């Protein structure tokens, strides 16, 4: 095919929306052939970030690619002098199948990095599927990104027929947003990638709330909704819930054979023995939305149990909700030192997978921090921002 020139320009909502949505439908991502439906608003995934941009590639008046980026300030303890850094997140890179391997993806990344540089960004980072060779080769081999973290994505279908019993020894309470902000700043403020604008995350309409669990016998006077944090119990846990299904839906094009076999067998058992009350396996091949558990924190000798109780509580809350806009799926992402949370957050191994985060220092003075980040054998806990899921 003859090579044609293309231009890179900013996305214009009114005139580009339909073409972007069409291109999104034609681009399957990674071996699972995941597709994203942005439900009429292609910038819905970035518009909740402090700064964002979407660039498109145009060839002969036709859109042949696009990319999105967002900027925020986060905690990076090893970044001098204050342990905070400006980071740029790269997401939603798509190039039309018939125009691939012509440098369009590279030009989009280059222009996005220029925007990051003009806004004084210290590090750019991207999350991709571990098996997405095109994306990994593009970011790592061509643009010099380095593997940084591999948090686990934990997926748990909600069972509409079943409510989990929560121990009567455990108290679960919803905290107001001001209290949630103080708790997060005090206990997770030094977590890697903790966003300095956490108040915007918690106040966003997609954030359904923050819940804290404690043991009754500790009689904790946490002062949950007063101005002060009060006395902190020996063991406690908290988490928040974000409703991603209101802004985008995903669908999977191809599932591993093991997964198909399991799904068929499960449905058959459910049909023959409805009395078992098995979870309905969501149809991952049709567009589905999900609820995202974020900001999971726990401390104290028995706090794993409290995390589990909070997850059961979230499950029960979602199973009762009448909302049709979201399939009943709960997703969490945990990494770094928090990986042991896998043992406490209920999930189906078959549907869960690792994510690959890659990072690049954009300024020469950030190289030392960068080296420390990518060679750290005992990484800190990682805050996965629900705006970037
Ligand atoms: C990944 C993607 C954006 C690449 O776009 P592109 O315009 O083809 O990329 P470029 O032409 O700029 O490729 C630059 C380099 O990336 C690497 N690369 C790109 N596609 C590749 C592939 N399929 N396999 C291996 N390496 C690949 C190569 O090193 C290539 O250089 P080369 O062509 O000189 O060998 C495109 O394949 C795509 O849209 N895929 C589906 C969506 C997706 O996976 N997005 C990434 C999500 S993070």
TrEMBL record:
Q: Which residues form the N-acetyltransferase domain?
A: 6-159
One Pfam match, given by its short name, reads Acetyltransf_1
Species this protein is from: Arachis hypogaea (Peanut)
What PANTHER family has UniProt attached to this entry?
Answer: ACYL-COA N-ACYLTRANSFERASES (NAT) SUPERFAMILY PROTEIN
What lineage is this protein's organism placed in?
A: Eukaryota, Viridiplantae, Streptophyta, Embryophyta, Tracheophyta
Q: Name one GO molecular function term.
A: acyltransferase activity, transferring groups other than amino-acyl groups
Q: What is this protein called?
A: N-acetyltransferase domain-containing protein
* Signal sequence, start to end: none
């Amino acid at each position: 095919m003859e090579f044609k020139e293309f231009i890179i320009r900013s996305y214009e909502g009114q005139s580009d929306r339909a073409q972007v949505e069409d291109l999104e439908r034609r681009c399957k991502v990674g071996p699972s052939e995941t597709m994203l439906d942005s439900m009429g608003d292609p910038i819905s995934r970035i518009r909740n970030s402090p700064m964002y941009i979407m660039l498109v590639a145009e060839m002969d008046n036709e859109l042949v690619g696009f990319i999105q980026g967002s900027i925020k300030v986060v905690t990076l303890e090893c970044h001098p002098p204050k342990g905070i850094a400006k980071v740029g997140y790269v997401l939603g890179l798509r190039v039309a199948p018939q125009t691939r391997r012509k440098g369009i993806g590279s030009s989009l990344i280059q222009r996005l990095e220029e925007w990051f540089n003009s806004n004084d960004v210290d590090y750019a980072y991207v999350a991709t599927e571990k098996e997405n060779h095109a994306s990994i080769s593009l970011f790592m081999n061509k643009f010099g990104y380095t593997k940084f973290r591999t948090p686990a994505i934990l997926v748990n279908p909600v069972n509409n027929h079943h409510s989990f019993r929560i121990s009567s020894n455990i108290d679960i309470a919803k905290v107001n947003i001001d209290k949630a902000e103080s708790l997060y700043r005090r206990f997770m403020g030094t977590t890697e990638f903790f966003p300095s604008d956490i108040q915007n995350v918690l106040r966003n309409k997609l954030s359904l709330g923050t819940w804290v669990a404690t043991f009754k016998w500790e009689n904790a006077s946490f002062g949950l909704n007063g101005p002060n944090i009060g006395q902190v119990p020996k063991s406690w846990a908290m988490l928040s819930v974000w409703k991603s299904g209101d802004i985008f839906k995903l669908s999977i094009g191809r599932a591993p054979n093991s997964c198909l076999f399991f799904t068929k067998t499960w449905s058959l058992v459910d049909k023959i023995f409805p009395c078992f009350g098995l979870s309905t396996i969501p149809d991952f091949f049709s567009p589905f939305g999900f609820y995202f558990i974020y900001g999971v924190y726990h401390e104290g000798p028995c706090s794993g149990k409290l995390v589990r109780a909070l997850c059961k509580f979230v499950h029960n809350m979602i199973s009762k909700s009448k909302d049709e806009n979201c399939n009943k799926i709960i997703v969490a992402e945990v990494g770094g030192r928090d990986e042991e949370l896998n043992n406490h957050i209920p999930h189906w191994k078959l549907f869960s997978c690792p994510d690959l985060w890659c990072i690049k220092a954009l300024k020469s003075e950030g190289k030392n921090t960068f080296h420390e980040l990518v060679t750290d054998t005992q990484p800190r806990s990682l805050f996965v921002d629900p705006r970037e899921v």
